[in-house]
Write a structure and sequence with these properties.
The complex is a heterodimer of chains A (about 425) and B (about 240). Chain A is α/β, with parallel strands linked by helices. In chain A, about 70% of the residues lie in helices and about 5% in strands. Chain A folds into 2 domains: about 270 residues, no CATH class; about 120 residues, abc type-2 transporter like domain (abc type-2 transporter like fold). Chain A has a 4-stranded mixed β-sheet with strand order 2-1-3-4, sandwiched between helices. A two-stranded antiparallel sheet of chain A has the order 5-6. Chain B is an alpha/beta fold. Chain B has a domain of about 160 residues: Rossmann fold, CATH 3.40.50.300. In chain B, helix 4 runs antiparallel to helix 5 and helix 5 runs parallel beside helix 6. The longest helix of chain B has 16 residues. At the A-B interface, helix 1 and helix 10 of A face helix 1, helix 2, strand 6 and helix 3 of B.
Chain lengths: ~425, ~240
């Protein structure tokens, strides 16, 4: 009989409860539902939208502006009443969210190069970002029209020189250099794409660590609460096996939960952002990324996987010790907090700052926390800082060994029964 | 009778608190030895040390020649412990719980089946064994746990308040079972507040108070020694 396998199966069975399955399915459903809803709303926003137009000018220029609106996916609906206030009121009564007022003399002012204002009225019937999208589009249309008119004017006035040369006499060619590779492209586009791709790593790690740690803490706390721990500790199996089985089962179930959670999260994000890689391909960033070698190959994924795996082991070992401190299931829930803080600090530091430019105390804090290292691994992989990755992995391994020895020692001594973190007076049963 | 469990000069400190102040007792093969004493006397601490849950601060505990401090794993192969406040895994069915525990002791499928059958017989829970332990009453859980403790026929069964939470009928059944197993050669170390139970079950008794062993002997011998009618009076006299 394989005693360890027996224990491991029991631990997994204990963790995969109906409540867990329901909560996971519910999470996926909610994410899928919100994602789909967001996708539908985005599609709606992209569809031809109605725009009420009060044209007080009736010149070829105003007709051209209205024509341009059609090409920008708007369906102009002309307001018959010539009074602006009445037009505002009339549009309010309809389901149209935007009113464009072209003032009298608009065309003439363009001919005389006078600045003339057109007015847009957005009806905010909802405060969602999607609700204000139409006014963003119309501003883009006006910008394009301004470009067209100014170019037209310059062509007429200075026919020998192209308008582009007059407006932008200095042109820049942008190059990005990463290590010994160089490619033509915008640095912000490259940085934006890389961070959008690597942001998923800390999110996954955070999810797995929190899920798995919560499970191992709860598993030990439940043993205490259900009074099963004492019996388990007297069966002929080593205490190290008990600790390992709990950690492994929690790691497995935590990993599965996190994958399911991320699956739902992907639906959720795609609803709002669409496919990032498709957008990047369309903007031409992918070519630059490939030239710069900022793509993750099999070796990169493997290194990242090792780094993530060791970080999870560290979290589980720490959670095991924290679990011993728990008196019952309720107190176990609050004990996850220190672990979450340890994950959140590097998460935010890596997300919003450059680790190299941090102050010395902040830098020390970042590198001392073992969970920082997998967060930094993606960037270090792209920048080929393999020594930094190696030191990170070795450091995490050292922390893991110390913690696992500590956890096994606690489980091998009285401390597993007597160590408690509680604020009430300690009671010892004789 | 050969003494299989030997406890000598056993001390236990919880920080600065001395819970056991050097107690001595021995348990023979197939003998039922009961520790009696008031709350906080040190009974559970003594039982937990023998069950390898706590390590002794001083003194020696040996079972069949194995030292509890040096060879706890060997100890665990021979013993079975039923804590006073124990539970079963609520998500596991009664049978699955028994199977899970039996697998730690069984060396073959045949042995595993024998243990489960034995446990079914002791627990006497019928079809309820097919239901999750979380649905059991306190009495049913206790019977399941007792079945778990005795199914492997351990060399030493350590039973802390074995009939705790059981009704009269179930308590009677449990006492019969313990007695039957002792006759088959299992040594039993138990503690109980129920003096009638102790008188019925035990071959010998240890009177413990404030971490000290006041006296040991058979129920009859102690009653005679202290000129008492029952164990409660024995205990009162021993305290004086």
């Amino acid at each position: 009989m394989n005693k360890f396998l027996n224990l491991l199966i029991k631990e997994v069975k204990e963790l995969i409860t109906l409540q867990l399955l329901i909560s996971l399915l519910f999470t996926i459903f909610i994410f899928y539902f919100i994602g789909q809803m967001a996708k539908t709303e985005m599609k709606k926003a992209m569809r031809t939208q109605k725009i009420a137009v009060l044209n007080l000018d009736d010149s070829p220029f105003s007709d051209e502006l209205i024509g341009n609106l059609k090409t920008a996916n708007f369906q102009p609906e002309m307001v018959k009443d010539r009074d602006k206030q009445k037009a505002i009121e009339a549009t309010k009564a309809t389901d149209t969210n935007l009113l464009l007022v072209i003032p009298q003399g608009f065309g003439q002012s363009l001919e005389t190069q006078e600045v003339k204002e057109i007015e847009t009225y957005s009806y905010l019937r909802t405060f969602s970002l999607i609700g204000s999208r139409s006014s963003v589009i119309i501003n883009a249309v006006i910008k394009a029209l301004n470009e067209y008119l100014s170019n037209d004017f310059l062509k007429k006035k200075i026919p020998d020189i192209g308008p582009e040369k007059i407006k932008n006499p200095i042109k820049s060619r942008d190059f990005v250099i990463v290590k010994d590779r160089m490619a033509e492209g915008k640095a912000e586009a490259v940085a934006g794409f890389v961070s959008s791709q690597s942001i998923i790593v800390p999110v996954i790690l955070m999810m797995i660590i929190i899920y798995a740690s919560q499970m191992v803490i709860s598993a030990i706390a439940m043993e205490k609460q259900n009074k099963t721990l004492e019996t388990l500790l007297t069966v002929p199996i080593s205490r190290t096996s008990i600790v390992t089985a709990k950690m492994l089962a929690s790691g497995l179930v935590g990993l599965i939960s996190a994958v399911i959670y991320m699956f739902g999260f992907r639906y959720y994000m795609s609803g709002f952002m669409g496919d990032i890689s498709q957008a990047a391909a369309a903007s031409g960033v992918t070519g630059v990324i490939q030239k710069l070698g900022l793509t993750m190959d099999t070796k990169g994924f493997l290194i990242l996987g090792v780094s993530l795996f060791i970080a999870i082991l560290v979290a589980l070992a720490l959670a095991t010790i924290l679990g011993v401190l728990a008196e019952d299931y309720r107190s176990a829930q609050s004990l996850i907090l220190p672990l979450m803080v340890l994950v959140m600090i590097p998460y935010f530091l890596c997300l919003f700052s450059d680790p190299r430019t941090l102050s010395l105390p902040a830098k020390i804090l970042l590198y001392v926390i073992p969970f920082s290292h997998p967060f930094l691994t993606t960037q270090n992989l792209f920048l080929e800082n393999y020594s930094a990755i190696l030191y990170g992995i070795l450091y995490m391994l050292a922390v893991f060994v110390v913690l696992i020895i500590g956890a096994a020692r606690i489980f091998s001594t009285d401390k597993v029964l007597t160590m408690k973190l509680k604020f009430r007076k300690k009671k010892v049963q004789f | 009778m050969e003494n299989v469990l030997k406890v000598a000069g056993l001390k236990k400190f919880y920080g600065g608190l001395e819970a056991l102040k050097g107690i001595d007792f021995e348990v023979g093969r197939g003998e039922i030895f009961a520790l009696i004493g008031p709350n906080g006397a040190g009974k559970t601490t003594a039982l937990r040390i023998v069950a390898t849950l706590l390590s002794p601060s001083d003194g020696k505990v040996t079972f069949l020649g194995f030292d509890v401090k040096k060879q706890p794993e060997k100890f665990r192969e021979k013993i079975s412990y039923l804590p006073e406040e124990a539970g079963a895994y609520k998500n596991l069915k009664g049978t699955d719980y028994l199977k899970f525990m039996a697998k730690f002791y069984a060396n073959s499928e045949k042995e595993l089946k024998e243990y489960i059958e034995q446990a079914r017989d002791i627990a006497d829970l019928g079809t309820r064994l097919g239901e999750k332990a979380g649905t059991y009453s306190k009495g049913m859980t206790r019977k399941l746990l007792l079945a778990r403790a005795l199914m492997t026929k351990p060399h030493l069964a350590i039973l802390d308040e074995p009939t705790s939470g059981l009704d009269v009928i179930n308590a009677l059944e449990v006492r019969e079972i313990v007695k039957r197993f002792a006759k088959e050669g299992i040594s039993v170390l138990l503690s109980s507040h129920n003096m009638l139970e102790i008188e019925f079950l035990s071959d010998r008794v240890g009177l413990i108070d404030k971490g000290r062993m006041l006296d040991t002997g058979t129920s009859e011998g102690l009653k005679e020694k202290y000129k008492a009618r029952n164990l409660e009076e024995v205990f009162r006299s021993a305290l004086q």
